[in-house]
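--- STAGE predict ---
source: upstream dedup step, 1 unique chain passed
mode: sequence only
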Amino acid sequence: MTRVLLALGFFIFLLGVWQGMVIAGLWSPVLLPAPMDVGQYLWSALLDGSLLAAAAVTMRRLVSGYAIGVVIGLPLGLIASSVSWVEGTIGVLALGLQTLPSVCWVPLALLWFGQTEGALLFVVVMGTVWSLMIATSTGARTIPPLYARAARTMGSRGMHTWTRVILPASLPHLITGMKQGWAFAWRSLMSAEIFVSILTGFGLGNLLQYGRELNAMDQVIGVIIVIVGIGLLADKALFGPWEQFLHRRWGTGR
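--- STAGE serialize ---
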């Protein structure tokens, strides 16, 4: 409860600073709208359904691309953590591609897939797989080798060792990797939606871009607040409880 009150007080303080900057007239209202103006935009966008529709489209794309990234990235990370030649080849490639900004995938996606959902999906997957693979590989390598040796001594072999020893022991690190992959997926999708406009649905990134084109700073700031809010909600409601439970369960609780 104390942490909630502290966070609430901090955000109220930020709103006060924001309002103070508006009153001081440091910037034009076109560049820095008042918090009330942003609130009015968010309320009107909620009433007309445009904000909820855009959020639904964005979340559909995000979940689809992220799921594909998890299916590819987690196994690759686990394999790279125990197979040296995979770490020396695909692992090195992952390190290089992880440093590539997500927006760099957009031109390639447009050339390959055109203005389609496939282009957006490709960017999200590319932004997710490599970071998830690296985080998973790093986490799995932190498992004490004694676990695997003890399991082999007791007769565990092959997939049994993977599913009953290595995978359970690495679960706290896997959740951390999935959390990192989710953050990269968010960034990738926002980059893609800003540059790719398709008739199958306009997402939050499209609303952000339209606000820039119309010089509607209240819309730009409002959409940014929604994006940040969804990210915090996913962390606190999904990944946070998983992390805490697994760290307590495995004796590494914070």
